Amino acid sequence: MKIVIAPDSFKESLSAMEVAEAIEQGFKQVFPDAEYRKVPMADGGEGTVQAMVDATDGKIIHLNVQGPLGNIVPAFYGILGVAHNGHKTAVIEMAAASGLHLVARNQRNPLITCSYGTGELIKDALNRGIRHIIIGLGGSATNDAGAGMLKALGFSLLNHQGEAIDHGGAGLIDLATIEDSQCHPHLKDCQFDIACDVDNPLCGPMGASAIFGPQKGATAEMVTQLDAALNHFATIARPHWNDHQINNMSGAGAAGGMGFALVAFLKGKLSPGVALVANAVELADACKGAALVITGEGRIDGQTIFGKTPMGVLQTAQQYHVPVIGIAGSLGDNANAIINQGMTAIFAIIPGVAPLEQVLADAAINLTNTSANVAALINLSLPLKTQ
């Protein structure tokens, strides 16, 4: 019997691989002779790099880069252990170099925060011979439409005096020309896949500034200023577009407009995060011939069906008519929505009321115990003896 274990991480507690190992430990108590295939998963957000590196026996690259406020911060990205069309693949979480968690709450100001560090991660990967890069857009501190990233890759963003514009979203309003003669020579040879799970355009009432600016520290006045700056940037950037509708494209406003820059300048392709991860870690191949797939995340609720890992795993497994069970840290409002989508059953691992710190610390043992109980229930599907 082949059992596939494909969970997301349990945030602030266990990585996706640690979750998979705890589930395996529990199931082996009941089915010691089963064949287990652990496939750590993610949806393009935090934990994506670690999950994909673990799933493919890849490696993590650590380096110091420019943070959102210009200070030097430690960052990382992953190189996968499997090839893509004959080339190595790098996986980058934008938040690793340009994330909101890198800026103290009282210093958050999207007028000046910059995505330069993300560009440095891309540049390092290119210098190592990487020609396929997956970028997860989530948790950014920036609203500069990827301008900082472009600068790090050698693009010149100049004002009317021929000088480099200031970093940050506000500086875009001074942009007059964009020159690419000095950009990294291997950009044209690299395929960019972008994990994006929002559909916001670059500008307007549903754009990057209006929807995501406030959580990055923008006041109402800043939102108006930033939106005008992004619109100006898009106008100046028009000669670089393949499609004059890119600024209105679904996802262009992701990560403060980073989605726009990756498509317009790097010819990237936007896709749901969990689909990109599933493809890269070859989840479909793992599901072929399986008797059961187990997935999960820290919390399953009504939002899980909208692009979260358990939903992506369910959709993959359904292609091969394999039943799926979800195991989560907790179950929230409308958790049964995923049952309505075809998942067989869902379980929470918390055995009783306890402080959050204890719940997080006990996650592995609670996960193993719950998994053993789930396996025991499955074992009951065998014919029962009658008295």
Automatic annotation (TrEMBL):
Keyword Transferase: yes
Keywords annotated in UniProt: Kinase, Transferase
Protein name per Swiss-Prot or TrEMBL: Glycerate kinase
Record has Transferase as a keyword: yes
UniProt-recorded Gene Ontology molecular function terms: kinase activity
Source organism phylogeny: Bacteria, Pseudomonadati, Pseudomonadota, Gammaproteobacteria, Alteromonadales
Highest rank taxon of the organism: Bacteria
Family under the similarity heading: Belongs to the glycerate kinase type-1 family.
